[in-house]
């Protein structure tokens, strides 16, 4: 779903050829006058949006509001199948329904909870603690409110300096950290801190001008962010290391960003569009919606976007020591600094402290719990250990199998047998000792 100042609209994430919206747009002349940020609570069937317009309605003491919406499943008739049912939107403090197959929308109980929070732009929802977080551009602060109880009040958790301008925001509730972009004219940055506000860090401070949007990829443990001045989208680790420029041609003024599956989605003020691209390479850029005067916030509505998707949170990913995640979500096990696996020279070290015989590597069957013994690049370039005086040599074969061979005198020798075709046509097919 994405916001466009006066309304919130929906779009198919993967069907760019379908111009029809999954749900009717949501709009209201009183309560939706400058909609900016979006966040979602899939389990609670709610979406949240912020509105920064200073209105004159008697309902508000300030119209810098955060409103929430949710879906309910509406059964049209007991005799109808599930495919004929329709969902209807309910905006907290307002109710939005639509009848049958049409898109007529009615608003009911239009009472608004006042939350004077300055210019609220970025929103993020913590699914674990049921907290809603937001950035205030005018107050230079990050705040939250707990939505598990009805009598909660907003609290400022991080008060930044007068020159700081926080914008995009996301939360990793499993690691108890919050991430945000900072427009500070002198020192723009990507920052993070614990949910208590402790240990504030600037994790990206170079080659950055106006960081607008920010989104966490929980499954891959990566951070994506966009720069509206440098017109690019970058990816990095959650500590700011291993930065990679994903896009620097198609984004012309990226405003907000979302990550889901194998894709990133963003709104663009110059392109006047909602776009999608491959999150690994930045290729395959697709325009999902165009001719949008001012596209604002964007959020992926799905049930698998929270921090519990981190594979390292389940039995440490099967690792004995450190569990890390590759950009595609695969677990990579490493030893703690200064610690080495106690594998012999005839064994393969899996990366999690586990040792297996070399003859079990690259045989098409994973013997390591993390699958490192069948890694494609390793199997193309690996060297089999030799017990003779001949030094190990890398051979350019696509795949070969190391096998143990016992000589007549009982000496174990590792042999390297070619299993698949040669990459180098000059190489000689045979057995290497």
From TrEMBL:
GO terms for molecular function: low-density lipoprotein particle receptor activity. Keywords: Calcium, Disulfide bond, EGF-like domain, Endocytosis, Glycoprotein, Lipoprotein, Membrane, Receptor, Repeat, Signal. It is a single-pass membrane protein. GO terms for cellular component: plasma membrane; receptor complex. It comes from the Eukaryota. Gene3D superfamilies: 2.40.128.620, TolB, C-terminal domain. SMART domains: LDLa, LY. LDL-receptor class B repeats lie at residues 176-220, 221-263. It is found in: Membrane. One of its GO terms (biological process) is endocytosis. Disulfide bonds join 343-355, 350-368. Signal peptide: none annotated. This is Low-density lipoprotein receptor-related protein 1. The gene is LRP1.
């Amino acid at each position: 779903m994405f916001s466009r100042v006066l309304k919130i609209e929906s779009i198919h994430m993967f069907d760019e050829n379908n111009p029809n919206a999954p749900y009717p747009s949501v709009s209201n002349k009183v309560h939706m006058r400058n909609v900016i940020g979006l966040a979602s609570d899939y389990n609670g069937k709610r979406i949240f949006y912020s509105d920064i317009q200073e209105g004159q309605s008697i309902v508000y003491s300030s119209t810098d509001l955060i409103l929430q919406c949710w879906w309910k499943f509406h059964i049209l008739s007991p005799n109808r199948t599930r495919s004929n049912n329709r969902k209807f939107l309910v905006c907290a403090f307002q109710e939005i329904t639509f009848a049958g197959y049409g898109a007529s929308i009615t608003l009911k109980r239009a009472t608004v909870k006042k939350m004077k929070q300055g210019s609220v732009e970025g929103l993020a929802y913590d699914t674990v603690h049921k907290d809603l977080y937001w950035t205030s551009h005018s107050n230079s602060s990050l705040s939250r409110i707990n939505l598990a109880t009805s009598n909660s009040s907003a609290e400022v958790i991080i008060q930044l300096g007068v020159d700081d301008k926080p914008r995009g925001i996301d939360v990793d509730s499993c690691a108890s950290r919050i991430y945000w972009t900072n427009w500070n004219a002198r020192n723009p940055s990507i920052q993070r801190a614990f949910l208590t506000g402790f240990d504030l860090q600037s994790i990206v401070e170079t080659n950055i001008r106006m960081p607008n949007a920010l989104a966490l990829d929980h499954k891959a443990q990566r951070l994506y962010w966009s720069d509206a001045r440098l017109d690019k989208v970058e990816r990095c680790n959650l500590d700011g290391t291993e930065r990679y420029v994903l896009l620097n041609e198609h984004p012309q003024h990226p405003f907000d960003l979302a990550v889901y599956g194998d894709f990133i989605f963003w709104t663009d003020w110059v392109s006047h569009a909602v776009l999608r691209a491959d999150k690994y390479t930045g290729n395959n850029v697709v325009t999902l919606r165009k001719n949008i005067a001012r596209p604002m916030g964007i959020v992926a509505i799905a049930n698998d976007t929270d921090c519990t998707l981190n594979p390292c949170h389940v039995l440490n990913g099967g690792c004995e020591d450190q569990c890390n995640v590759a950009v595609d979500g695969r677990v990579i096990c490493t030893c703690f600094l200064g610690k080495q696996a106690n594998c012999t020279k005839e064994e393969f070290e899996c990366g999690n402290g586990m040792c297996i015989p070399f003859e079990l590597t690259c045989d098409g069957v994973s013997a390591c719990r993390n699958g490192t013994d069948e890694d494609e690049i390793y199997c193309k370039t690996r060297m089999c250990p030799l017990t003779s005086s001949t030094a190990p040599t890398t051979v350019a074969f696509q795949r070969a199998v190391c096998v143990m061979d016992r000589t007549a005198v009982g000496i174990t020798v590792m042999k390297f047998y070619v299993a698949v075709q040669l990459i180098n046509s000059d190489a000689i097919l045979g057995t290497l000792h």
